[in-house]
Design goal:
alpha/beta; 401 residues; nine-stranded mixed beta sheet
Amino acid sequence: MKIACVGGGPASLYFSILMKRQDPSHEITVHERNPAGSTYGWGVTYWGGLLDKLRAGDPESALAVGESSVRWSDGVAHVRDRRTVHHGDEGFGIGRRRLLDLLGERAASLGVRLEYEHEITAADPLPDADLVVAGDGVHSGVRERYADHFGSEIALGRNRYLWLGTTKVFDSFTFAFVETEHGWIWCYGYGFSADHSTCVIECSPETWTGLGLDRASEPDGLALLEKLFADLLDGHGLIGRAQTDGSAQWLNFRTLTNRTWHRDNLVLLGDAAHTTHYSIGAGTTLALEDAISLADALRTHQDLSPALAHYERERKSALLSIQSAARHSAQWYENLPRYISLPPPQMFALLGQRHSPLLPYVPPQLYYRIDRAAGQLEALRRLKRWLGPRLARTVQARSGR
């Protein structure tokens, strides 16, 4: 089979690895618009279950990814001058550039052709191939040329966020909430190498404009953020894109969905097909799982059309609960004042429960008591799991959402 992957992100590269392992005679080309070694995004997160899936697909690349990752097992929340620790599941962080380098090297070693600085826009003809994989991200030019067919919909989140790096190395997944005269601003910090961490800053639009972050230059904005998070950063600075490859931008998160994921011999992969809010840390994992599912569907179906249909059904089904969790997670932060005044252990407990469809409809302290009791009573746990989705659907239907 002749395969063209548009976009050289983790999903396209890993898919090309899996297809070459299935059949070395596949002719596979990955078209990436950026130069080799050029990327933005600092570090990405994943959990242990992903490594197990990567080992099953290609032990060599899984070993390289695992060895290049940093690990943590605790979550830490700073609220004003209080610090709360939660012992949880083991998580991993790896630099996005390092991940792409590892997967690119492995793909090339298997005979995949990597064409850097080769952008395929909405106006360009599609590559001549038996299968074209659109892995070119949320702004996919390949998808946009058939926007009506794919039925793309984008919902903008309310809060503003900014993706930064720092030389402060966090040994736990760290949350910090700072109160200002214009409202709360917070960050998510996690290590991804021996000397760098990712630091995602988020706040409401009112706080963003009140602090002047909407008007500040990147150096002035970083200086203000460094002052606000001085206790967390311990004298370390924040790094924006002006020090790497451009200007850091405050964004509203774009939640993308598509009615269908394939058209003839064209199929969507990763962020070109779907996005989930960054607060659940699942974007890279979901993209790699897409690659695994697509490769498996092509292996088990002789014809292309049923293979692509199977892939779409399988991944859409797998995403339902994750997309719901991401939506509720984003809403938790958009309604932060509802939770931030709770005693820190309770606030952090509800931070961990932010994926729950029941939480927005129950007074926070009552939910906390129910959750604590549910930890002891199986019948109450079952009721909680049953009631949450039904209540959420009822409220959404009444509001016309």
